[in-house]
Design brief:
The chain has helices at 20-34, 93-108; strands at residues 6-16, 36-43, 46-55, 61-72, 75-86, 113-114. It is an alpha+beta fold and 116 residues long. It has a single domain, classed as Alpha-D-Glucose-1,6-Bisphosphate, Chain A, domain 4 (2-Layer Sandwich). The chain has a six-stranded antiparallel beta sheet with strand order 2-3-4-5-1-6, covered by helices on one side. A hairpin with a 5-residue loop joins strand 3 (46-55) and strand 4 (61-72). The radius of gyration is 14 Å and the shape is elongated.
Length: 116
């Protein structure tokens, strides 16, 4: 049944000045404060942090959140991706999860900026 449901997905790329190790520690902290961390995976040039967080009314609509931290010139890049299944009533869980992670990241790291 869930295969037929549409997904709500939002990806936001942030640039950050801290080195990838410091950005990875911040990614872990932000993910722990917003939801439940599931795994840390090595990716080419960095690390990906996967977790689940509740969105919608009462936090009952689960969203999968991925923070991918990679090295870049003069700092690092963080790709925040939120994805959630949508039922008949659209709650935009993926978008809300990604926006929550981005707002917490920007509050913790004043040197971060959204990339285009």
């Amino acid at each position: 049944m869930t295969r037929r449901l549409k997904k709500d997905v939002l990806e936001v790329r942030l640039g950050t000045e801290p080195a990838p190790d410091a950005a990875s520690a911040l990614a872990q902290r932000v993910l722990e404060s917003c939801g439940r961390p599931l795994a840390t995976v090595a990716v080419p040039g960095g690390r990906a942090f996967l977790g689940v967080m509740g969105t919608g009314l009462g936090g009952l609509n689960l969203a999968v959140v991925t923070l991918t931290v990679t090295a870049a010139d003069g700092g690092g890049t963080v790709l925040v991706r939120g994805a959630a299944k949508e039922g008949l009533i659209k709650q935009h869980g993926g978008r809300r999860a990604a926006e929550e992670i981005v707002s917490r990241w920007l509050a913790e790291d004043p040197t971060a900026w959204p990339e285009t």
